[in-house]
Design a protein that fits this description.
CATH topology of the domain at 72-178 in chain B: Immunoglobulin-like
CATH superfamily of the domain at 7-189 in chain A: Immunoglobulins
Distance between the termini of chain A: 68 Å
Helix content of chain A: 10-25%
Structural class of chain A: alpha+beta
Oligomer: heterodimer
Number of strands of chain A: 29
Number of helices of chain A: 9
CATH architecture of the domain at 72-178 in chain B: Sandwich
CATH superfamily of the domain at 72-178 in chain B: Immunoglobulins
CATH class of the domain at 72-178 in chain B: Mainly Beta
Shape of chain A: elongated
CATH class of the domain at 7-189 in chain A: Mainly Beta
Strand order of the largest sheet of chain B: 1-2-6-4
Helix content of chain B: 10-25%
CATH architecture of the domain at 7-189 in chain A: Sandwich
Structural class of chain B: alpha+beta
Radius of gyration of chain A: 28 Å
Strand content of chain A: 25-35%
Strand content of chain B: 25-35%
Chain lengths: ~625, ~220
Amino acid sequence: MLRAHVYLIISLFLLGACAKKETSNTATNGRISPTYAGPAEAAYCAATVPYGGSTITVSGTAQYVRRETYNQPSAMPSFTGLGSASTSHPDLPAGAYPIRAAEVRVTDAAGNVVQCAQTDPVSGAFSFTVPAGNITYKIAINSRSAQFNGGAIYMNASVLNKPEANQFYSLVTTISAGGGNVATGVLQATALTSGPMLGAAFNILDMFFNANAFLRNKVGTCGATFPGCTSVTTSAPVPKVSAYWEKGFNPNDYFGSTSGLSFYLPDYSRLFILGGISGEIDDADTDHFDNSVILHEYGHFLEDSMFFSDSPGGSHNGNKVIDPRLAWSEGWGNFIQAAILSDTSIFTTPPMAGTPRYFDSSGNVDGTPDLFFAVNLEDMTGTDLVTGGQGEGNFREFSVSRMLIDAVDGTGAEATGSAYIDNISGAFNQIWAGLTKTTGKAFRQPALAFRNIGDLHLAQQALGTTSWSAIRAGNYHDGNTSEYGEYVTTAGSCAIVSPGYNYEIDPTVAATNYANSNLFLDNDFYHLKIATAGTYTISLDYKDADGTGQEADLELYLYNESAQFAVGADILSRSMSDPDSNPATPQNETITVALAPGNYLINVNAFTAGAFSAAGPTQYSIKLNGANLCPASL
Amino acid sequence: MSGQSLVMFISVIAIAIAANRADESSSWLQQKNLEQNPGLSVRGPASVDGKKDFPLAKKELLKHTHKVRGPLAAVVELVGQRPEQDGDVFVLKGTVSSEQALNNVEFTWNLPASGVEVVNGQTSSVIAVLSEGKPFETQITLRQVGSANARVTLRVRGRDSALQFGDAAFYHTMDQDKLDAARLELRSKSEAYMASDLPPTSVKNLDLSGGAKKEQLKIFH
C-alpha cells in the first residue's frame, strides 16, 4: 500500500465558518438566542456511495485528545483540576480516545460529496473507497452521529457551534488518489487551547456515545423484563440531541451573566456546554472536558425525551432543601453521570471506579487549575447531611443521587444512613422501568403531575420486585409523595388526626418570608386535579394541635401546574389572613377561583415571620367546595 | 396635562411613595427585630401583624436547567473610575458569599505577569468564618501598566469536609466595558427573540413506541 502524502488540517467544516471563527473575547457576535432555529443542519452522510471501475481504498483512525480530571494524584498530591493537553505529560497526561461512530464525509475539490462512511464504534477506524485518479479528496470526520447504511444506531447526536449557524466541527485531512490505496494513519483532534481544540467537541460527542452504550447495556431488554419499559437498542435508540459548544463562549452570556454555565433547554433537545468565559479557557471555568457536567446535562435530555420532567428549573447547590421536582431532576442528572462513568461495561477502567463522584473543573494545568465542585455521591459528609428527618431526602438533590447510586452499585457499598445497609445492586432497569412505563404509577402516566422522586418510589414498588426500603430509609426518603404533590380528591380517604382535621404540620424552621421558607418542614403540597371548568372554593381550616396555645399561622396558596414556588405568575390565588390570636378558635383561609380543567398545586404554608412566632404543631383540613380533600390513587 | 390632572398625578405619586416608605419601615422593623433576636426559637403568639406584604419572585423568561454550583460565589466590581491609560490607579472590590456557613475560605487576587500592579491591598487571605447571608468584602488598589488589557481574577476556594467548592470572577482592565456591553446586547437580543417567538399553544412531545403521547406546555412564560 502506498502511503500518500497526508497532512492534517483542522477546521470547521464550512469555509465560511473558518473565516468567521470567533475566538475574540466577546464571542457573542452573531448570536441571537438559545432557542433560535437557525439554518438547517447539513444532511447526514448516511450511506456508502458505490463505485465501479478503478478505485482506491482510504483507511485510517480518528482520535481525540482529552484533558483528564485529576484530584490529588499520587504524582502531584496537591493538584486538583484538568491536566495537560499532551498525552506525554509526565504527571498529568491527557488521554487519547477513538472517535467512535462519527460521520465521515469525503468531498472533491469542488465540494461535492463523493463518499460517506462512519468511524468504527470501537476503534475509531474508518475505511472507504473512492474513484482513483489524479484527484484530491478532503476527508472530514465530523462531530455527529446517526444511522449509517441502515445499520446500528449508536447514538443520534450532533455537536454544533451555535444555534445561529448549526455547524458541526470537523477533523479534516486531504489525500491524493493518484498513487493507489491511502493510509492516513491516526487523525487526532487535539486539546490544545492554542488551536481549534476539536478534542473538546469530540469529547462531548463521545460522552453521548458512552451514555447510549450504557443504556443499551442496562435496559436493552427492559421491556421484556418489565412490560411497558422502554428498551434502548441500536434499532430503537434515544432520540437526537444537539449540543452547542464553542471555544471560549459562556452560554450564560445569553442571559447577561458572567458566571460559567452549561444547561439543557427542555423541549428543544439542546445542550449548551460551557467553552470558557469571555474567550478565557486555561484560567476560566469550562465544561467541555468535565464529563460529569456533560453527562448530567444529557441526563436532563433523557428526562425530556425518554420520560418526563416537571422540574421548575432554577439554581441549586446540591445540598439544600429545594423543590422536590428540581431535586429529583438534578439528582437524576448527578446520578446518571456517576452511573455511566463508574460502569465497567462501558469502561475497562472507569473514570470513577470505586467512589462515584461529581467533578466540575476550572482552568487547567496550563493556566490556573482548580475543581470548582467535587462531591462524593456515595457518602454524606460534613454539613451535607439530612437534618429534618425522614422525608427530607426527597427534597435534597444529593440525597436523590445517593439513593439512586445505592440502587445500582455493589451491595458492599454503604448506604448513607449509618444505621442502614445497602442491600440493592444492579437495579438500573427498575429505575428505568419506573421512569418510562406509562402504567403502574410510572413517570409517563399522563395523569401524573409534579413528578418527583416520590413518584419513582411508588413506581418501583409497583414493579413488585425487591424492596428498596433499606436504601430509602438510609437516604431519608419517603417511599411516596406524601410530602410533595400527593394527589387529593373529594373521593379520597384521609387518616383523620382529630375530628374534623386530616393533616398536621409542625413548622420548625424560621424563615424570614414565604419565598425562603423550608419546603419540607414548613410547607405541605397537594395535587388537585380539576376535571370540569368552573368556579371553585378551596378552604383551609386549622387549629392548635396540642392545646398549648401555639397554633401556627397557616396560609393557603393555589398554584398552576408550573408551580414555581413563590413566583407570582404561578400563584393563582392565596389567602393569608392573620389568626385571631385565640388558639381556642379554629382558623380559616378561603379562596374562590375560576379553574380550567388541569392540574393544580395546593400549598399550605406555615408562616413563621422570621422566628417561631406562630409555630406550634397545628392540625388542618382542606376542602374543595366544602368537601374534604383526601389522598387517593391516580 | 390640566391643573387638576397634575394635582391628582402628584397625589398618586405621593401616596405611592408614602406606601413604599411604610413597607420599607415595616420591613426594616422586622429586620431589626431579627438582628436583635438572632436565632429566635421561642414560640410566641400566633399572629404577627402586617408581615405578609412581601414581594413574589418574577418568572424567568426561559426555563432551563443550571449545572450544580457550590455554595461559594465571587463577584468583582470596579469602585470609582475605570483605568483608561497607562498609570491609572483604580480600585476593585471583591465580594465573597456563601449559601452556607463555611470556615477557612481562601481568596486570591490573581494578577497577570504584566499589565497591572498592586498599589495597595491583600492579594490573598483566608476568611476564617464565612456565614450564610453575610458576604465578605475585600478591596485591592491596582495601577494599569501599559495600554493593553489585563485580566484580574478573584478566586475563592472552600471545603466542607469531603466537599470542595470554588468560584472565580474576572475584571478586564481595558475591555470590561466592551465585554459587558456585548453580553448585555446578547441578552437583550435573546429576550426580544424569545418574546417574539411565543408559541400559541402546547406542543406535542415525543410519541414513544407503545406509549401515550406526553403533552407539555412549551417553556416560555
